[in-house]
Write a structure and sequence with these properties.
Elements: E1 2-11, H1 15-24, E2 28-42, E3 54-60, E4 63-69, E5 73-74, E6 78-87, H2 90-99, E7 103-116, E8 123-129, E9 132-138, H3 141-150, H4 163-174
Length: 184
């Protein structure tokens, strides 16, 4: 599927309270909590990162997807081209990308629960990461802002950084050499 991804993240300091706000706002679980392993691929020397692009293989339970993300336009929201498709075999996808000259570069893990409302104009995910809990609001800018308002999220709380960038900032703050963003 090809499209334009528009999203923001927000830090979720109180998981239970945020889930309660989602329910009260009419959101219901669309996809139950699942462990995800995301592997970012890159060439050597890097050809994607310098231009703000990425190729990812996501393993989410028994679902596997390959994603290309184009350069991001960042303002209040982050938007970028996204081309994503399902594959039936993650190991074959890894081998395919390696044969094309891409190699695993960065792995990040999370537990993700996906929510939607009756209108299904967008999606909110709750991501439990090794860095903390984040919600991602993905849809049109108008939908994101409307949902944020209903959930009591101020614009100044919007995060447009990727999980990779959040991880690097966290490592710097903690004085840790970066590796992969994985649960221990």
């Amino acid at each position: 599927m090809k499209g334009l991804e528009i999203e923001v993240k927000v830090a979720v300091p109180n998981f239970r309270q945020f889930r309660r706000k989602l329910r009260e706002a009419g959101f219901r679980v669309k996809h139950r909590r699942v462990f995800e392993r995301n592997t970012i691929f890159e060439t050597e020397p890097p050809s994607l990162r310098p231009s703000g692009c990425l190729v990812r293989v996501r393993e989410a339970g028994s679902r596997f997807t390959i994603t290309y993300k184009g350069p991001a336009t960042v303002g209040k929201h982050k938007s970028r081209e996204e081309v994503e498709f399902s594959v039936s075999d993650a190991e074959a996808a890894y081998t395919f990308l390696v044969r094309l000259g891409y190699h695993p570069h960065f792995v990040y893990e999370k537990y993700r629960t996906e929510y939607s409302d009756a209108a299904s104009e967008g999606v909110i995910t709750l991501d439990e990461t090794p860095l903390g809990i984040y919600a991602e609001l993905e849809g049109s800018e108008k939908w994101i802002d409307s949902c944020a308002k209903i959930l009591g999220i101020a614009d100044k709380e919007y995060i447009t950084a990727s999980y990779g960038a959040l991880y690097l900032t966290w490592c710097e703050r903690e004085g840790i050499d970066p590796g992969h963003m994985k649960f221990r």
